[in-house]
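Internal ticket - ligand job 399, heme C:
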Amino acid sequence: MSRGEYIAKMSDCTACHTTQTDKPFAGGLAMPLPMGTLYSTNITPDKETGIGRYTLADFRRVLREGIRKDGSRLYPAMPYTEYTKLSDADIESLYDYFMNQIKPVHQANRENDIPAIMSMRWPLALWNWMFHKQGAYRVKPDESAQWNRGAYLVQGATHCGTCHTPRGLAMQSLASDETEHSFLAGSDLGGWHAFNITSDETAGIGKWSQAEIVQYLKTGSVPGKAQAAGPMAEAVEHSFQYLTDSDLNSIATYLRSVTPFNDDKNKPSRFEQGQPVSQDLKLRGVPVDVASKKMPGASLYMGNCSVCHDADGSGSPDGYYPSLYHNSVIGSEHTGNLIQVILHGVKRHTASGDVMMPAFGQHLSDKEVATLVNFLTKTYGAKDANISASDVKALRVSE
Ligand code: HEC
Ligand code: HEC
Ligand code: HEC
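stdout (structure tokens):
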């Protein structure tokens, strides 16, 4: 893998710029924003429809400042707010990769569907003036080389904060590095919650070891703590699994130093909840129709989930089928992720193997999913999530 390709992988340019595998980087991904739908653009080196006419200086400017070759401003849906931290050398390698290793694809960009008044790009200049801190990462001489490398990667290329740092009313990220309150403190995105990953021991991942953080980013799974589904599974699959162990360790070192953020000291830790509880024993000898009326959660669980996660929720010994207690998705007060996992399943392909949990969205009604979620959070998590069928319905839209 060339240096440029490595930087493209860790920055996950593919996530937003590739929609058809046979046309890498040709753009066209729909990004629903509060004011309308924006489409990512063609960044192949095609001279008419792509970025074939960009010079290195143009390319540096678009990544650092979000300004296109023609001088117009990009919406901050393109994470130039993070990529601004990339070093000159890394930008140069990335430029070389896009210009010389990517096949030009002739495909015109799609117009965005943002209402005329909102689609004026000049107010973005004001947005940038207010919120965007431009400039390459600056080394902190008091910290180790490993820490600095981690800070460079987390704040910049791997853009963890794009998903994990809360946003304000103008969609601006509320913090861009560890010196600012709420950096990586958790944020909602498209029906998912990207958890608090500060070093707080209960609200964050302060009790995870260095090796566990590395393993999670490389494989997406740390049995007894967490698995990566949804957007995090994609980030692991397309990006983080390719990072060298040295880079992953740098990320872990830096993460473990990020100021703890805890907005509610009474909130229990996500991954320390619950214990094995056998549904099989509870339902034994109870006629099926009685069980489904009186113990609907346990019945649904035995009918749909226990084949893989075991009757007592302990999963398989190797963790391929994860345990449902000591599981951050069930232990979290943000129930959206659990609903998403049941509706849409889990798919993750990495060098360490294929992970697949089937989607139950077609098979289970909104009410059944709600019943299961309330049952699971009560049995294997901290407390009954108390959600209703309409909460589930709201998350089906992404199907
Ligand atoms: C989270 C989604 C996302 C990621 C990740 C992303 N981009 Fe973008 N990018 C966009 C969107 C959306 C636009 C169009 C924004 C607009 O029209 O205002 C864009 C526009 C661009 C443009 C402007 C091209 C033009 O039309 O002139 C360039 C260049 C670009 N991206 C390069 C990159 C590179 C290189 C990477 C990886 C280092 C990357 N992008 C990663 C979403 C993304
Ligand atoms: C595209 C959005 C996105 C990006 C980028 C992203 N994450 Fe995540 N992350 C998520 C979501 C969503 C979850 C919850 C996944 C789930 O419920 O299975 C998550 C979960 C996690 C968890 C598990 C926390 C727990 O308690 O279960 C860790 C650790 C984590 N991310 C670290 C990182 C790091 C480090 C980076 C940058 C190197 C990063 N993430 C980048 C969206 C993202
Ligand atoms: C065919 C086997 C299978 C069945 C049936 C199954 N699962 Fe899973 N489940 C998996 C696999 C595989 C994973 C992913 C493990 C990983 O990410 O490493 C998983 C993951 C999960 C997770 C963790 C997701 C995360 O992001 O941390 C939860 C929660 C879960 N399943 C709940 C359920 C529920 C509830 C049911 C029943 C409606 C169910 N599963 C049915 C195989 C299954």
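Auto-summary: The radius of gyration is 22 Å. The pocket of heme C (ligand 3) is lined by residues 220-221, 226-227, 229, 304-305, 307-309, 321-322, 324, 327, 329-330, 338, 341-342, 346, 348, 355-358, 360, 372, 376 (CB under 6 Å).
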